[in-house]
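Holo prediction — magnesium ion.
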Amino acid sequence: MKRYSISELLQSEKYLQEVIIKGWVRTFRSNRFIALNDGSTIKNIQCVIDYDNFDENLIKRITTGAALSVSGTLIESQGIGQHVEIQVNNIEVLGDSNPDDYPIQPKKHSLEFLRENAHLRVRTNTFSAVMRIRSSLSFAIHQYFIQNGFYHVHTPIITGSDAEGAGEMFRVTTLDLENTQKTEEGKTDYSKDFFGKETSLTVSGQLEAETYAMALGKVYTFGPTFRAENSNTSRHLSEFWMVEPEVAFNDLDANMDLSEDFIKYVLKYILNNCDEDLQFLNQRFLQEEKSKPAIQRSDMSLLEKLQFVIDNNFKRVTYTEAIDILRNSKPNKKKKFKYIINEWGADLQSEHERFLVEKHFKSPVILFDYPANIKAFYMRLNEDGKTVRAMDVLFPGIGEIVGGSQREERLDVLKEKIKALNIDEKELWWYLDTRKYGSAIHSGFGLGFERLVQFATGMGNIRDVIPYPRTPQNAEF
Ligand code: 4AD
Ligand code: MG
């Protein structure tokens, strides 16, 4: 007898096959109907048993969460809700699940409770749907870039440089922290550390990706990145995954085009390939929205939001235009923003980004040409001498989903920038070499993978779209 996945059987056109399936019990009703799930689809298969043919002790062991091997005949379903079911001949309990203390009962659990049981939460419909979509998005990302002539580069995770210059890095060390050797100046002597220098977990693979773009032309890196910022929000993780393409000879316009085309492609991919999971999450999203106060409610369903992004051009707006809009906006005048926008140069907070996207433009927005002093050192300085060729893609409900720029390719300008920011030029000697030898304009961006998954699944909290979230004061599991 052949073992099938539940997804295969539910799509099967043939009845009466002798089949084996293995999975976990979701529910067991009336001592007759087992709903079995094996992760291959959000749907359960109904397994029907004839009570009289089974040992009572075996029946007692069919409880929510138990692992079973079931063999039987695939027949046309008599009940509603499924077109096939299994008429069971034999059941083997592979692993019992004690119904008295199994946390994932067949009822609605709060997301907070499930976060505390992150090792089991993927056994729920919501989390299995989210994680299957996460996997599909990851696949679509690789597919997009490979199909478009990009090479996948594995940039390092342990690094000696601070790519974003923000200093929010986790240190990597094997030094005995209780007892570090000191230099003559009384500072920790990192020459005694594992790598002979100070090292950290990377905040971005960009700088290394740039060096590869300057030979391979079009590259992308997709890996874990780490930020030691103390942000306890629904959009920040301390460990998250970032997709970073980098393209030689692309200017900022081409970079914006790439980001838009790329995002639309991966969202289209899941609309075409993850229908069941998206239908489920769409229903869930509508339920959640109903429980919100009317003014906070989304006027679109999840599926409509995805389609909207695919069908519409992202609005491209300069930072300067955005500041004008914000300064004259109602929430600014009525002091409804936590951070009031008074003048040009202000850093935009997520409340401002969301106002622009959700209230003003009602569309994804690409903001570009930001003030130089609120952006990283590597961005190309504009002719005005005060703005840089930066771009942020802003999404409804999410805020910033992509951050990128055209890079400063002029060695002298880049050196000036580095000096002004008190960055040690020697640390970046290899990066500066790309500007010495065959420098050319180039651009790239970073997309926060979890923010994309959040948008695609309609989940409100970023902690619910990654298997084991790392956030300040939390690294359980
Ligand atoms: O805007 P960021 O900081 O840009 C960079 O790191 C550039 N080096 C990328 C590049 O040009 N290659 O981060 C890029 C994106 C953000 O737009 C956001 O989506 C996500 O990464 N991100 C986070 N996601 C979750 N938790 C955090 N703490 C994040 N910080 C940034
Ligand atoms: Mg950013």
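READOUT: The chain has a mean pLDDT of 95.
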